[in-house]
């Protein structure tokens, strides 16, 4: 029987599963979806392939789990950041600020890798559902602000977020990118084209 490095069997199994998920994500990000196999994941996690099958019975099961995990942790962080914000503009800013912080940590890489991985249709559909769930609080805040054509406005400023994430990925200073992005977002959310907080025109 394998050595149990935890106070209970349940905790031991939870730790092993977490290690396998971490190994699978690492393989996905660095080597692509085809590399995510039970044997490779077990080797990366330091576990026998037979141990992997106690948790995941196929590559498809591993990818399905990664699909969920790629969003769960980020969603929890985004929800906490937005919950601490006092109004809709502040919630949008919190969403952007936290998204860029997570991006600087590389948290978006699993989802990005999955989107380009040619997943089975069911996984692709679930991935899109999770993405829509992630951005809905941001889109709801934009609607609450009352800007013209809120759906289009949300799409446009989401495009700025993607560009900002790409800049961080290329090595741009996260703080600088965040400050500049939020300045532009505030302008987009202001009916007058000034700051979203007081509506004054900026020169």
Number of helical segments? 9
What class do helices, strands and sheet pairing give? mainly alpha
How many domain regions? 2
Q: Give the strand tally.
A: 0
CATH architecture identity of the largest domain: Orthogonal Bundle
- In CATH, the topology of the largest domain is named Tetracycline Repressor, domain 2
CATH class descriptor name of the largest domain: Mainly Alpha
Strand content: under 5%
List unreliable stretches of 5+ residues.
Answer: 193-203
What integer value in Å does the Rg equal? 20 Å
Q: What topology emerges from the helices and strands here?
A:
Blueprint: H1 9-31, H2 38-45, H3 49-52, H4 59-83, H5 88-105, H6 109-115, H7 121-145, H8 150-169, H9 174-189
Helix pairs in contact: 1-2, 1-6, 4-5, 4-6, 4-7, 5-7, 5-8, 5-9, 7-8, 8-9
Keywords:
mainly alpha; Tetracycline Repressor, domain 2; Arc Repressor Mutant, subunit A; 2 domains; 203 residues; elongated; 9 helices; disordered C terminus
